[in-house]
Amino acid sequence: MKCFSRYLPYIFRPPSAILAASCHAEADIISTVEFNHTGELLATGDKGGRVVIFQREQESKNQPHRRGEYNVYSTFQSHEPEFDYLKSLEIEEKINKIRWLPQQNAAYFLLSTNDKTVKLWKVSERDKRPEGYNLKDEDGRLRDPSMITMLRVPVLRPMDLMVEATPRRVFANAHTYHINSISVNSDYETYMSADDLRINLWNFEITNQSFNIVDIKPANMEELTEVITAAEFHPHHCNTFVYSSSKGTIRLCDMRTSALCDRHAKFFEEPEDPSNRSFFSEIISSISDVKFSHSGRYIMTRDYLTVKVWDLNMENRPIETYQVHDYLRSKLCSLYENDCIFDKFECVWNGSDSVIMTGSYNNFFRMFDRNTKRDVTLEASRENSKPRAILKPRKVCVGGKRRKDEISVDSLDFSKKILHTAWHPSENIIAVAATNNLYIFQDKVN
Questions:
Q1: What is the torsional sign of CA 157, 162, 163, 165?
Q2: Separation of alpha carbons 349 and 291, rounded Å
Q3: In which residue ranges of the chain is pLDDT below 70?
Q4: Is 0.70 surpassed by the pTM of this model?
């Protein structure tokens, strides 16, 4: 894990966070982080419905070490708060997920979703403006046709670079429950959106119709025993997807078998050890995130205490299990009382599928090397993140006696939690969201 003990941080606060009073702090909490397919752009969404896109600095001969830095590229309001009058429910503007589409031309496209509505955004640059309209003056006002005495040819004039974000599609009114996942298919023509009980398949060109491909809603809601927690398409096979449940199970579905994929092709579940059975067993076994490896051979799942790696060819147990914060097992009662036990941590692969990363409390995040089986705990905090500083591994002490560089499990701050992380698709650059701060770390640059 040598390369992971040396990350250089850059910290970003949302533009509004610098000026906002305490009443706005909640809106600035980052709720999703996502690199695009090249890693040149990084998008974050927050509870205030905003999307902030960062662009990577281009390398210059004078300052080659600046190559890793990301600067604000575009900021726009993606979702607004709404009210469902039929159900008397407020619909939050919080961005639950962002997913990039592969770049096909000079513009960028991304999907963003709150609890009910998915939007397709186009982000494009403009450095020229047309002048010399016939029917409009330079301010855009319509001219009196009787005053037009000659025909002009409009011309393009250079202007300061402007980045525009425009909504191209709005996919609404298809989910009764809260959307927890969106995933772009490898055919790049369709995507799916998943809520607690249903998964819908959309075509990017059709906004008023979607196909329900999974429905686990029972006829009698009193018989409900599990909900869908996450879903993702296979990275290479457009007919295959997985979804996880609150019971700790993963279902692999094949859309070629039937239009409604209520019958799974494969079912992944690890038998529970009866000796470890407790009141909290069902809660902590609920899967909060599921991710295919880039190769498509493995599935990674995150539950409350562990990260597991499953081989698609072996359904009865995971091939790897990593303890994220096993020292919290004795704290489950207090974590239940303060609702932290319901926190939904995400997990990510590095570009080569050899290392996995996930978050924890006290602004800690964990990395596990699948080859060497070594792991490291790092901390994202303003105190130890001066530019070009080296991050030192942290250790949590469970017993009564602790060393100088260790932190006691009783001293952990459970209000500081890293739920959302992202890894550059090809380089050792990571993005970590710690409440309303975004930290970007990279390999040590000589």
A1: negative
A2: 8
A3: 1-24, 59-68, 384-388, 400-402, 444-446
A4: yes
